[in-house]
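Internal ticket #5521
Category: modeling
Description: The requester needs a full-assembly model to guide mutagenesis choices. All entity lines are attached below as received. Residue total reported by intake: 431.
Assigned to: D.W.
Attached entities:
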Amino acid sequence: MRMAAEFLFQVFPTSGLPIYRQIVDQVRRHVASGRFRPGDFLPSVRQAALELEINPMTVSKAYSLLERDGIVDLVRGQGMRIAERNETNGNDSLRQRQEQLLPLLRQVAAEAYQLSLTGKQVRSLLDGVIKELDGK
Amino acid sequence: MNREENVLEMRAVSKMYSGRSVLDRLNLDIPAGSVVGLLGKNGAGKTTLLRCALGLARPQHGSVTILGEPAWNLSASAKEHIGYVPQNPQLYPWMQVRHILAYTGSFYLRWNPTLVDRLVREWKIDLTRRAGTLSVGELQKLAIVMALGHEPDLLVLDEPVASLDPSARREFLKVVLAIAAGGSRSVIFSTHITSDLERVADRVAILQGGQISFFGELGELKDQIKLLRLTSTNTFPERFDLPGILRQRIEGNHALVTTRSHTPELIGQIESRWHATVEVQDLNLEEIFLELHDD
């Protein structure tokens, strides 16, 4: 199954996070959340570029990083397919999983700075949010 | 044309106007198939660079090669493969739009009337108007259509979106993206609107002090240039002695450092050397542009 890129990805060209990284992060998140299942195909580079109105080189850079990391496989003539969940996929090292969270945390840190919240105040908020989740 | 080659090569190009240096031993190589955004402040010399690239202005020093030929002596066949939209297109004010298009098309061996008709329709250009009655934005749209009609391998645009309204700008960006999706044709456009560039360009060239201060992938630029917020229990020195610092502001145990060589190693080095916590902040192109121009 192949979905329209517009529904799958949301890119913010004027963000400080390069667009290719935004796509990589979103694919990873979709895989983690189960929205992408093994065997699903990503939109073609051309389709994604035209729908998202971004340069195709940006899309292909994102896809090749995903391929390098084993998230997708290149299927000749068909495009990029979400890989079977394998050892690398499910058991990312702690470091790798932390790195996935970094962009979001940076955003939080920047916003917190603008709101003149201290690190301590933010951490206590975060602790609260995590507790809420754990309680469910 | 050999597609493996660079579409444009500028080597040690210097251009002066009445004693004032505009380009100063500038080097720039643009590979085939790329969409390059040329970014610079007002008066940085973007137009001069593009005019030298096209052989419309002659540098005092250095060499310019475009599509494999010296820019100053371009053959007619090389010109067939280049499209150019100047900043202020000068068209024939007494002629109707349809006559201008037919007249322009007659100069080219390869002219695509279907493409031209489609663009004219999509951009709602009135074929019966006289060019002299068109607004600046309408003129610019017409000039873009004229530059696209012969499907050039290299499209050079000087501030193409400056006088377009947001919807026309979006339409224009789609045209550039369609060219980019083909993979073999190249586009160079100058602009000071960074948000357009962030969408369509795969490479960015920053013109500063008569030279190209950065040329590379946009994502790479964003990966490299970061704002670091440092906090330490100790007082920081007056200046950090680190590679690639663009700007630093230090006050006691707080510091803001903009670096152009961000790596995890650099962060580790700062953390251990100054017992600091480091917060890395992403910068978008506009912010990067401002950081680079802070002097």
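Resolution: model delivered.
Comment from assignee: Chain A touches chain B at residues 13-21, 46, 49-50, 53-58, 61, 103, 106, 109-110, 113, 119 (CB under 8 Å).
Ticket closed.
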